[in-house]
C-alpha cells in the first residue's frame, strides 16, 4: 500500500503519508498503522468519514461522534444527535489511501497512546448535513502525533470515553498537555491548510 524505495513527497518537499506510514497486521487487533520512518511530534493526519444514522446493527468499529463547532456546548462543540461519522475505509472509495490511514490507528493496550484525536475545529453543522445527504466524505477530526515516533512503531490513539469497547482492558487517555498540543496543531492546520498528502509538523503555532 505504501510507496517503496524513493519517497513520495508533497509539493513542499516533505515526505508524503505513503512514504511515512503503512497498514500492517497488528497482533490481536487485525490491522494497524505502522511508521515506515521516524515521525516527529506534532505531525497531523486527517480522519475522514461519512455521516450516517445511528441505530441497531450499525457497525461502530470506525465510528466517531458527529460533532460540529458552534462556540457553545462542550469546548465549543455540539453533537448531531442520532448521527455518527463512519470512517470505514470501504465507504471512502474515491479518496486516495493517504486520507484513509488514520482509520487504522488502534487503541494502545498498555501505556499512553502516541497519537491524540481532536475534532476538526472548522467542522460545521452544514458540512455534516451535506456529508449525510450526499454520502460525501468529510474531515471530522485530526490525529496529532503526541511524541516522536520511531520507524517500525505502531501508531496508537484513544477513542474517547464514549466508544463502545468490546475488550476488557481500559486504554489510558491522553494527558491534558497532549490534548492542548493536539488542539493547537489542529487549529494551525485549519488556519493555514497544507498540501493534500501530509499535514506538517507543528511547532508553537507554525508549520516546520
Automatic annotation (TrEMBL):
It comes from the Eukaryota. SUPFAM superfamilies: SET domain (SSF82199). Residues 176-186 have a biased composition (Low complexity). Signal peptide: none annotated. InterPro entries: SET_dom (IPR001214), SET_dom_sf (IPR046341). Residues 162-186 are annotated as: Disordered. Residues 19-160 form the SET domain. This is SET domain-containing protein.
